[in-house]
């Protein structure tokens, strides 16, 4: 394993019955970075992360986490890796948040200070409340604190800001940035493109169980493409618009009534779009020309709108 990699996956295959959830996936996660793993529903990202965490056994291929096999070396890895499951799952429903964190801290040699963690993530109100009675956002914050309290070298976070209000989401972002500054590797599964763009040093996009792109947000959006966005009636037949545009252009209805054209935009392309709209009695409301964003790249590579599954 490369000394600069926290996670290395080669030709990973994992099937459920005869259906491959992960189909020959290879990827590398650099040490000391925040790496965001993106993908639509059924892409295989959660299964991939579960193989890294040791919860799933690969059918074939290799997985190395901090140079170790998550299955064979689970006991050696456990003190070095933090895990936050989706929606704060995995805790006894009768446990109280702060008591749970104190218990977990006693299981580690050099834990973080629980009181500081409680203050940072505003968990004081969970001290006397069982997990089953906490709000979704509170459970998320307890789960995040539980993943961090052991002072891990590597942490896997599945949707850590789901259900949080904007202020608390930014507080969690600050916590993750502090982890990176301390040399911790963060693997972040998220549906929030803004979260990936703001936090990630490295982004991996997975589709149909395979890696389709990887690099920094700047690298993934550095081509010469621009985008045209406009709103119109939902479910427009876009075939004739695609035929009228350059061959490399992509046209997607990214949400009902919202359309994105990705290509090299010049006056001729813009005129083609507006003429097509006029011919099809479409008022292109909110028409905007912009540079390619990470969301545009995601849509072009997967054909899916961000936020469509795990």
UniProtKB/TrEMBL annotation:
GO terms for biological process: response to antibiotic. Residues 7-233 form the ABC transporter domain. CDD domains: ABC_DR_subfamily_A. One of its GO terms (molecular function) is ATP hydrolysis activity. InterPro entries: AAA+_ATPase, ABC_transporter-like_ATP-bd, ABC_transporter-like_CS, ABC_transporter_ATP-binding, P-loop_NTPase. It is a peripheral membrane protein. Its main location: membrane. It is found in: Cell membrane. Transmembrane segments: none annotated. This is ABC transporter ATP-binding protein.
């Amino acid at each position: 394993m490369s000394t600069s990699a926290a996670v290395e996956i080669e030709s990973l295959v994992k099937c459920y019955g005869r259906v491959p959830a992960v189909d020959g996936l290879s990827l590398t996660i650099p040490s000391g970075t925040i790496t965001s793993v993106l993908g639509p529903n059924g892409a295989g990202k959660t299964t991939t992360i579960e193989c890294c965490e040791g919860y799933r056994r690969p059918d074939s291929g290799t997985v190395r986490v901090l140079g170790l096999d998550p299955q064979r070396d689970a006991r050696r890895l456990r003190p070095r890796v933090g895990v936050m499951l989706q929606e704060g799952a995995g805790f006894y429903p009768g446990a109280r948040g702060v008591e749970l964190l104190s218990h977990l801290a006693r299981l580690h040699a050099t834990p973080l200070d629980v009181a500081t963690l409680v203050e940072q993530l505003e968990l004081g109100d969970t001290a006397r409340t069982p997990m089953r009675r906490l709000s979704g956002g509170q459970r998320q914050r307890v789960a995040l604190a539980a993943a961090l309290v052991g002072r891990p070298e590597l942490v896997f976070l599945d949707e850590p800001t789901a259900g949080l209000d904007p202020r608390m989401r930014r507080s969690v972002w600050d916590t993750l940035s502090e982890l990176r500054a301390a040399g911790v590797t963060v693997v972040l599964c998220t549906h929030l493109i803004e979260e990936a763009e703001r936090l990630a040093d490295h982004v991996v996009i997975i589709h149909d169980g395979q890696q389709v792109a990887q690099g920094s947000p700047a690298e993934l959006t550095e081509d010469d493409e621009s985008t045209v966005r406009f709103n119109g009636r939902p479910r427009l037949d876009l075939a004739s618009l695609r035929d009228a545009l350059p061959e490399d252009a992509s046209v997607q209805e990214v949400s009902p009534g919202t359309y994105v054209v990705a290509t090299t935009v010049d006056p001729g392309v813009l005129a083609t779009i507006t003429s097509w709209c006029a011919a099809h009695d479409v008022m292109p409301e909110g028409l905007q020309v912009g540079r390619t964003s990470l969301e545009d790249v995601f849509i072009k590579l997967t054909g899916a709108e961000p936020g469509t599954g795990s």
